[in-house]
Design brief:
Keywords: Plasmid, Signal. The protein has 412 residues and is an alpha/beta fold. It contains 14 helices and 12 strands. The longest helix is centred in the last third of the chain and has 24 residues.
């Protein structure tokens, strides 16, 4: 082979390589990966809903990787860690999680995560994004743990204000609360509403706060007291086990007192534990995100996209909505951080800065959440707070009210 031939062959190979490179997508040429740590509970009090919640948020990360992430040249890797919904377990696992993943964000589950990591995350400069409502003990400035919803007490106060308006009259609404001292979050749910009732006796008459076990066997006697006190609503924002025991206790006493649940222990999960949604006819769930009912909404349409194209097998219910909403506002903030800083060198600190830099619009969260405007003053948005209310009618979940304004709940 002559020099001229060899030179020509090299030129042909080079030209072919350039042509091939031109046909390779940008993602294949250069992709930056970042890690997310997902805190989960597959064996503790939320084991009944965790598969649905986990698969929902994971489907969002897969969707983002295939759409926005591909365009940006970024892929989000994620890994679940079993915490058993226990603060000591979270604290024990955290050093290993940080060392293994070096995550740019943590995707949390509940109160034990907040209790265990509220002082660690500012030192490690890694933000944590929750799906749940917030907690009073975490209501402080310069937080590193963020909730898309206000506190549980905000949400229950909004619901009770709406319920009193529906009832009519000037008398305060008589209310009982079921909580548990087993978790700081459960205690917090009661304390905030207790203070609100004390400051607004013309609106709420808190007849009793009952503290019970995380998985009580029988609450018949306690529900008898609640019924005799004339309670018009029972607030249970803890877990499905307590809802089941409360409902059985009410039924045993022939008491028709509506229960208000949150998202993580809402109508589908608690109804399933009771043997069917018909057991919760006339009961409620209320929270600051979309209600997973049969109506054709943007949220429902996005869920169907995840189910059709990204392998989501979870049913359309409030737990699925909670997981999807958590994933969506997490990737929205990460997307903002990439737009601001570029795909390379993203850190947890830059992700947190992006949270404050611009609102997360309702469009970005596909209608699962209202437009969220975070400031360093609190770990959740402080303005424009609203809740949506779902109920069971004829054995089906329906939207009872949307955009219910939340009253001014003072910090406790």
């Amino acid at each position: 082979m002559t020099y001229k031939t060899r030179h020509g062959l090299r030129g042909m190979l080079a030209a072919g390589a350039m042509a091939l490179a031109a046909t390779i997508p940008l993602k294949a040429q250069a992709e930056t990966t970042y890690n997310l740590a997902l805190l989960s509970d597959f064996s503790g009090p939320y084991a009944d809903i965790m598969p649905t919640l986990a698969s929902s948020r994971e489907a969002v990360f897969d969707w983002w990787n295939a759409t926005s992430g591909q365009k940006l040249g970024v892929k989000l890797n994620y890994k679940n860690y079993e915490t058993r919904y226990d603060a000591a377990q979270v604290a024990s696992l955290w050093p290993g999680i940080k060392s293994e993943l070096d995550p740019i964000a943590v995707v949390g589950l509940g109160g034990p995560d907040v209790a265990a990591l509220s002082e660690r995350l500012p030192e490690d400069k890694i933000p944590m994004f929750m799906a749940t409502a917030a907690y009073g003990y975490a209501w402080q400035s310069d937080a590193w743990i963020f909730n898309p919803r206000p506190t549980y007490s905000h949400e229950s106060a909004g619901f009770l204000s709406w319920m009193r308006e529906q009832r009519g009259g000037d008398e305060p609404l008589k209310v009982a609360i079921l909580a548990s001292e087993a978790s700081p979050a459960y205690v917090d749910m009661a304390k905030g509403l207790e203070l609100y009732a004390e400051e607004h006796p013309e609106e709420l008459d808190l007849v009793e706060i009952i503290y019970t076990e995380v998985q009580p066997t029988d609450l018949t006697a306690q529900m008898r007291r609640v019924a005799r006190a004339g309670a018009e609503a029972l607030i249970v924002q803890t877990n499905t086990s307590i809802v089941v025991a409360a409902k059985r206790g009410l039924q045993a006493n022939g008491a028709d007192i509506p229960i208000m649940m949150s998202s993580h222990n809402g109508l589908p999960a608690s109804g399933g534990a009771l043997g069917g949604l018909d057991q919760l006819e006339g009961d409620y769930e209320a929270y600051g995100m979309a209600v997973a009912a049969d109506e054709d909404t943007p949220a429902r349409q996005f869920y169907e996209t995840l189910a059709a194209d990204y392998g989501l097998e979870a049913p359309w219910n409030v737990v699925t909505a909670m997981g999807i909403s958590q994933g969506l506002y997490t990737v929205a903030v990460i997307g903002h951080a990439i737009e601001e800083n570029g795909a390379e060198g993203l850190t947890g600190e830059k992700v947190r800065e992006a949270l404050f830099a611009q609102p997360i619009t309702a469009e970005e969260t596909q209608g699962f959440l209202p437009t969220l405007t975070f400031t360093p003053d609190a770990p959740f948005p402080l303005k424009g707070l609203q809740v949506n209310v779902g109920t069971v009618k004829d054995g089906k979940i329906t939207i009872e009210a949307t955009g219910v304004d939340v009253p001014d709940v003072k910090k406790w």
